[in-house]
Amino acid sequence: MGRSADVPATLADAAIAATITGLVILTTFISMVASERAALAIGQGIDRLAGRLFHRRSMSVRALVVDLRARINEVVRTGWLKMTLGLVGYFGIYYLLFLLCMHTTGVHLFYGQLFAAYAIGRLATAVGVTPGGLGVTESVTVAALVAWGAGHPEAVAGAVLFSVFTHVLEVPLGALGWLAWSLSPKQAPADNAAHHLAS
User: Fold this and answer.
1) Closest C-alpha among 140, 106, 138, 114 to residue 19
2) Contact, 42 vs 28, CB < 8 A?
């Protein structure tokens, strides 16, 4: 392929930043779900910080965190397998779409390199600079593809095409999904979740 397979320093820095940000978010989320004490501490800490920034508030983050924890525990307890398979299918389908976009625009790299570029782009969505990492994900994906031997125009075209499918087209499809969910019949919360909230 004629080019160095080393990852550029800017791409490495972006990947490190995304990894650290993702780990912080993941650790906070897992702590909140796994431990009621941690959930209360996180909620109280955010309440104190918000109290210093905004003197007039009508919402308690602590109450929201406790409610969210109870709902998540109930959903995960009953639907963890479906959610796991759904996520595997979701990212698997997106990877196939990524491969098609790269093939269409003339990016011909090994599947391992393409998967690495795809994974780096998905990881960059954790960098909350723009909604969904828009712009950031494309930049780091292009940098990875070019570093591993793809032509710059082809890599940019492939990343933009993939972004069109994963960002632009998700908006109308998401609106249709929201409409279907809004019109579908709802079930009352489980009794044990309500009991947990009361305690």
Assistant:
1) 140
2) yes
Residues 116, 15: Cα–Cα separation, whole Å: 11
pLDDT (0 to 100) of residue 58: 62
Please enumerate in sequence order all residues whose Cβ is within 8 A of that of 97, keeping only pairs 6 or more positions apart, or say none. Answer: 162, 165, 166
Note whether residue 183 is domain-resident. Answer: yes
Supply the pLDDT for residue 3.
44
Domain region containing 37: 9-198
What is the Cα 175 distance to its own chain's centre?
19
Give the number of domains in the chain: 1
pLDDT at position 120 is: 87
Does pTM surpass 0.90?
A: no
Burial of 92 (0-12, 13-18, 19+ CB in 10 A): exposed
Is 37 among the domain residues?
Answer: yes
Residue 3 lies in a domain: no
Query: Which residue in the block uniquely carries the two structure tokens 């993702």?
Result: 22
Residue 89 burial class via C-beta count within 10 angstroms: exposed 0-12, middle 13-18, buried 19 and up:
exposed
Q: How far, in Å, CA of 181 to CA of 6, rounded? A: 46
- Low-confidence residues of the chain: pLDDT under 70: 1-12, 14-15, 18, 55-59, 127-133, 188-199
**Domain contains 181:** yes
Return d(Cα 84, Cα 68) in angstroms, integer: 20
